[in-house]
Every structure is written in structure tokens, then in C-alpha cells.
Amino acid sequence: MPELKPIVVERIEATRIVAAPAALDALAWPQDAPPETLILRIAPDEMLITTTLTADVVDDPHGILATDAGFAGVWVAIGEALDFLGRSCEWELPRERPAFAQGAVAGLPVKLWFEEDRVLFLVPAPYATDLEERMS
Predict the structure, then answer these.
(1) What pTM was computed for the model?
(2) For the segment 44-74, what is each residue's pLDDT rounded down to a tens digit?
(3) CA 105, CA 112: separation in Å to the nearest integer?
(4) Where are the chain's structural domains?
(5) CA distance 54 to 36
């Protein structure tokens, strides 16, 4: 049986945008954003974007755009991720891919981005070590 690599959760660069839902729906995405950037709608009026944005991209005079260094994450191969989630997640996972979901996993607040072959686990940075321990 092959030895599993240890899970290493690392801090991610992100931008948080809080604005009216209609303004987020009409987000003007910058052309120079890295292609691997994820836009996660974490609430009707809030997005977490996995890159640092310097330009105001939302058309809302009361919108807030701020750098957010408060999350840590790790990509996990789909088989290993689903095994862990099967043991540690009490709610139904999305069946379609790509998909975003969030909730308690192994007693931690987790945001999940599902792709066909891998899953991104995001946790508030103070929980990074806890996630590593629970996934090991």
C-alpha cells in the first residue's frame, strides 16, 4: 500500500468583497486575473476570491473590497478527499462538479471547492493545524 503524503494546509492570498447581491452578480472580472483564481460566493452579499485584487471590480458605492489573509487551504486528490469527507462530514455533498459547499467537517468550519479530480479545503487560518491533524 503506498504511503500517503502528509496534508499541509497553507495560508492563501484572498480578497473579500461585500456588496449588494445584484452588484456581485454583475461583477466586472479583471482580465489579468490568474486563471486558477476561484470565486466563492460564501453568502448572498459576500465573495471570497483566491487572489489579491487591487482594483475595485464591483459596482456598488457601499461595497467593500479588502485583502483577506484569514484563510488557509489545501488541495486534496478526489479519492482521498471523499474518503475523509465520508468519515467526517454529516451533510450531503454536492454531486455536480465544479461545486462550492460549506459547513462543519470534522468539527471545523470548512469551505470546499470540488473539481473533477480534486477538492480544495479552506478553513479559517487558526484551524489549519487542526485540519491537518484530523486529515492525517
Answers:
(1) 0.89
(2) 999 999 998 877 788 889 999 999 999 999 9
(3) 10
(4) 10-70, 72-135
(5) 17
